[in-house]
Amino acid sequence: MTATSVSPAHPHPLPRISREVRLAGQPRGLPTAADLHIAEVPVTAPGPGEVVVRNRHFLVFPGLRTLMGDETDGVPLPPLRAGDTLFGPAVGEVVAAGEGAGLRPGAVVVHLDGWREFARLPADHCTPATLPDPVAHLSSGSAAYGALTRLAPVRDGETVFVSGAAGATGVLAGQIARLSGAGRVIGSTGSADKAERLRAEFGFDAVVVRGSAPFGDLLAKAAPEGVDVVVDTVGGEQLTATVAAARPGARIALVGALAGQLSGDRAGGSAPAEVDSYRLVVQGVSVRGYRGADHPDVPAEWEERFGGWLREGRIRFPYVALPGIDRAPAALQELIEGRHFGTVVVAL
Fold first, then answer.
1. Which CATH superfamily does the domain covering 141-294 fall into?
2. Three-class secondary structure of residue 143 per DSSP
3. What is the rounded CA–CA span in Å between residue 310 and residue 316?
4. Whole-model pTM?
5. Mean pLDDT, contiguous 10-residue spans, the chain (348 residues)
6. CATH 3.40.50.720 domain range(s) in the chain
7. What are phi and psi of 224, to 5 degrees?
């Protein structure tokens, strides 16, 4: 049994030790489980305005690969260097609160100090969990929702293409597009099994499985009349193909660039793609990147809509929960390798 300590001001017992995941050394190419290690750190009582949170779930997300690399210019998060503890969205339970914290033990909150069992942080860095399943706060749906409401709004009956549709953002983007009035929703993925799930469980009308032929040919077959709206999480050859398939007035929203970000030949912060600029001009196509900082009103709006849709059973949030912090070092590698469907979290 883990030894515990009790703060005189806060009679809730705290463990003496917490485990957290740290970067062992800067990866050469794509990170693997060997580039991460688990360290033990002391747990101390919260000071004024602070809380200690026992994390229950934390998000595994591809942006960590960029933060570990050499191309972090313009990234709105601090880089990760050898010895640093990983971080990211997490959901947990307040187990101790300092004077004036405004949160009581037992409160379920969302914060950004994931990749550790216990987090001590300012209470105002926490947000109360309000969704039916607290893990849903770890979804990447805000970016998909923002892209489809701010950059590329869907008109009734239009055809929408979502690249990387079996990923955390893509699977929600397809459902949001349908709820927004799309007449046809097409996705792409890397396996036939994922494609079948997208069609059978998440309402995609067609799914392109990359690799069996040039991607442009596969997309043209799936969308012979072209596409009106694109939510692109991948970039690369898929972005090239969507420009070729774009109908007059099409809107392309870029919310990721995994083809470059998760390439072993790059450093995580660049994703070149060949785009036919002539077609953009003659078809009147817009291409815009979605930055959350430009749309500060979106997260709250998304949370309200998402919560309503979840309660009504109109949207599904698929996630894979990998058990235990001992599994965490391998979780990022598994995400990069595309082993899982939907959002990937570690459950503590």
1. NAD(P)-binding Rossmann-like Domain (3.40.50.720)
2. helix
3. 7
4. 0.94
5. 42 86 94 97 97 98 93 87 97 98 97 98 98 97 98 98 98 98 98 98 97 94 98 98 98 96 90 96 98 96 98 98 97 96 98
6. 141-294
7. -60, -25
